[in-house]
Amino acid sequence: GDSVTQMEGPVTLSEEAFLTINCTYTATGYPSLFWYVQYPGEGLQLLLKATKADDKGSNKGFEATYRKETTSFHLEKGSVQVSDSAVYFCALSGGSNYKLTFGKGTLLTVNP
Amino acid sequence: AAGVIQSPRHLIKEKRETATLKCYPIPRHDTVYWYQQGPGQDPQFLISFYEKMQSDKGSIPDRFSAQQFSDYHSELNMSSLELGDSALYFCASSFYWAQGNTGELFFGEGSRLTVL
């Protein structure tokens, strides 16, 4: 079945540091790929998405490129802020039901 | 813009009690998904409905049941509650026939269930 593997955290960075959170997936067909963010005590918010190979999703300075050849969708940000502290989930949507399958999540803490 | 509404936001129950969570999807959305997120865990798919019919089933315990009503809202009923049912329960909705549907789901804020 479909699965998502993302780097385990927690990840602790200083403000303005570069961020990479790795995500790889296994799926049949051509899934859509997503990054969701969950701030403390809150729900899931879509951060960015990509629907086909070589697409780049971007939002709020975050970027991720859909790499079919390496089945990856790594999240990057050039300069993180304290307000980026949250749990980040990589997810894929596949099949006719568009059900989302999530990775385990990566806790990011950014220190001033 | 209208979002997915879940109620109640917080619920405290005793073991062996029953709980009902409600979800009101975004207007015009015809598909509802339920997810369970345990402490420090990723969201796990429970069940989904399309046009009031169950469309997929995941790791939903037999003690749980759900349905989607004629106005498209959905309810998750949980009986004989166990300590391990304590979790954040998310509802998400989508419009299945949206042009160029990318599979994006729109999530509610979640209902936090605590079983004592």
Give a verbal description of the structure.
The complex is a heterodimer of chains A (112) and B (116). Chain A is mainly beta. Chain A contains no helices and twelve strands. Chain A has strands at residues 3-6, 11-14, 19-21, 23-26, 32-38, 44-50, 56-59, 62-65, 75-77, 86-94, 99-102, 106-111. In chain A, strands 2, 5, 6, 10, 11 and 12 form a six-stranded mixed beta sheet that branches. Chain A has a four-stranded antiparallel beta sheet with strand order 3-9-8-7, with no helix packed on it. Chain B has 116 residues and is an all-beta fold. Chain B is 0% helix and 49% strand. Chain B has no helices and eleven strands. In chain B, strands 2, 4, 5, 6, 9, 10 and 11 form a seven-stranded mixed beta sheet that branches. Chain B has a four-stranded antiparallel beta sheet with strand order 1-3-8-7, with no helix packed on it. In chain B, strand 4 (31-37) and strand 5 (44-50) form a beta hairpin. The interface between A and B is medium-sized, with 23 and 26 residues.
Number of strands of chain B: 11
| First and last CA, distance of chain B | 37 Å
SS content category of chain B: mainly beta
- Strand percentage of chain A lies at over 45%
Termini separation of chain A (Å)? 41 Å
Uncertain ranges of chain B: none
**Range of helix content of chain B:** under 10%
The geometry of chain B reads as globular
- Rounded mean pLDDT of chain B is 92
Order of helices and strands of chain B: EEEEEEEEEEE
Number of helices of chain B: 0
Strand content of chain B: over 45%
Query: Would you count the extended β strands of chain A for me?
Result: 12
Please, how many helices of chain A? 0
